Structures are given as C-alpha cells and as structure tokens.
Amino acid sequence: MTGETPLIRAQSLGAIFDVSKPWLNRMLALEKKQFLTAVDTVDFDIPKGKTFALVGESGSGKSTIGRMIVGLQKPTSGKVLIDGEDFFAIKDRKRQMAMRRRIQMIFQSPYASLNPRWRVKHIIGEPIRAFELMPVAKIDKRVAELLDQVGLAKSDGEKFPHEFSGGQRQRIAIARALASDPEFIVCDEPTSALDVSVQSQVLNLMKNLQRELGLTYLFISHDLSVIRYMADEIGVLYLGRLVEVADRDTLFQNPRHPYTRMLMDAAPHIDAFGRTAEIVSGEIPDPINKPSGCSYHPRCSLTENLCRKDRPDVREFGQEHARVACHLCTA
Ligand code: ADP
Ligand code: MG
Known about the structure:
Blueprint: E1 8-18, H1 23-29, E2 35-46, E3 51-55, H2 62-69, E4 77-82, E5 85-86, H3 93-101, E6 103-106, H4 110-113, H5 120-130, H6 139-149, H7 166-178, E7 184-188, H8 196-213, E8 216-221, H9 224-230, E9 233-238, E10 241-247, H10 248-253, H11 258-266, E11 269-270, E12 276-277, H12 305-309, E13 315-317, E14 322-324
Parallel strand pairs: 3-8, 3-9, 6-7, 7-8
Antiparallel strand pairs: 1-2, 1-4, 4-5, 9-10, 10-14, 11-12, 13-14
Helix pairs in contact: 5-6, 5-7, 6-7, 7-8
C-alpha cells in the first residue's frame, strides 16, 4: 500500500447476516440463532483511476462487498473510506448527498434496474434531477451527450428500455451511472448476462470511459478472462475472505494460493478431443457452518493438519507484495 490516500479503502470489512428461523420456530425446535459471515475482514485499496477486481465463485461475498462500498449496506465490522472519509459517519444530509453523487453502481441485469415505463432520456436524466446538478432546461442536452458517449443516438432517448438489446440496455445503464459525474463505479457482473461478442464491446466501452473520464472501478466477476482484461489489481475471494491479492500480471503468471490455481484450471479450456472441458474440484461448503482452520482445506490437495486447525493469516510475498492467506505458501 502506498503513502498516498487511495480513493477507496476497505478496512477489515465484515458482513454478518442473521439467517435464523422465526422466533417461534426456534423456540419449538430449541434451535439457536444462526449467523452467516458473508464477508470476513476484507482489506484492499483502490488508487484513483485504477480498477480493482474481485473474483470468486457464486456466494463468495462479491455483491455484499460491492453494496457496502457504495453505501447501500452498512458493514457489520470495519469500514469503507472514500477519499479518507467514512460514508456512514457523515451525518450532514447535504454532505451525504455530495458523497453519493461521486459513487455509482452498475448491475448484472440492466433490465431490472431500468424503469420499463420511463423513456430512456428520463431514465438517464434522473440522477441529474435527483442531485440537482443543473437547471432543468439544460438536462436534455446533457442526456444527448451521455447517449453519444456510450455509443447510442440522441433519438434513442425517446424510446423505452424494452426496445433495446441486452448490450444496448447495459449502455443505457452506464449512461445513467455517468449522469451524476461520478469518480467511482462499482460494476457487479456488468456483462455476465451478455453474449461473448457483445460482452467485449461493453467491456471496451467501459475501459475507454475510464481512460477519458479518469474513473476508478471496483469490477466484480466470476469470469477470470473478463477480470484479466479489466483489472489492474485482483482480489480472489473464497467464502467471504480474500485469499489472495496481487496485481494482474503477478496473479496470472504466479498464482500462489491453491484456490487461485484451481480457479485458473477450472476456466473452460479445450481437452484432447477438441471439446471444452471444465475441471472443478469439490463443492463450495455451507457458508453457515464453515470448515475449521482454512475454509478451503476440504477442497485443497495440499491440506495438512495445520490447515484443518488454524486459520491462516494474510502474509506478503515477493517484490510485488502479493498478499496470500495460506499456511503452505512459501514464495
Ligand atoms: P456473490 O455476489 O459472490 O455471489 P453474495 O455477496 O451475494 O455473493 O452472497 C454472499 C453470501 O451471503 C451468500 O452465502 C449469500 O447467501 C449470503 N447473503 C447475501 N445477502 C444476504 C441476505 N440479505 N441475507 C442473508 N444472507 C445473504
Ligand atoms: Mg453477486
């Protein structure tokens, strides 16, 4: 971590959900309350203008981290600092709004986040009105600019979301996210629902916008090839914990955690018969009753006694300062 204040800092971030059955059921069955630790002491920084990517299987806590970072969900422990400031500690409403304007989120399913009864120009202009960023008379011109920026025509503003393809709808969602002039955008599986060819167009658009506007991204995906394309630094999540954090090239050239290696092996590839094969070893454990010691130990081929017993601390390796939580990692 550098001396300069990062735009985003996640500090010992934790999220615990109460997943207990209703009180009466518990009393009758004499069951205790149940808690699920979705995010467990997660630390990372995102410098301004860079992309930090989170990768992990479904249920590893990616979306929960995303929601905490944008202030949609209060962390159970730890905090998120934006430009050195904790959003949840800001009491003044005006300053809260000013902070909200700087942060946006793009979701996997743009159709769900776009109001089907609104014309596209209304959808894109809504943050401008909500944050009162300019006189109403100027909004149409700004919306036309935003449409152009995401590769759509001004006339598209008159249409409704259902008149567009999946890729175009994601462009609309991006234009809407850009409307408040944000500095930071959390992108939660933004292209996972799109066809591969459309996916790369949208990813390219997002990269270009980042360069032009100096944006900072938290990019969430379960797909390593997408992560590789987008990220400067990568965090690998397993059952709510970051098991490895490294810059992109280091992670792909020298994956240190056995789970990172397993993810890379599991990425679809062609077998000897020309078919695509997938190697996935083991299932994700029950997140409510996590394995003892290192949560990955039941799936790991290297497991030793220590791994069953003690939870590994995060340690730094190499000149690249890769951070790895594994007892057996040595270099
Ligand atoms: P991902 O985005 O990586 O698939 P999530 O952050 O959505 O993972 O979920 C992480 C874990 O937290 C999962 O086990 C999920 O079931 C659980 N979870 C997420 N949201 C809630 C909630 N509101 N209540 C209870 N459990 C939740
Ligand atoms: Mg998710």
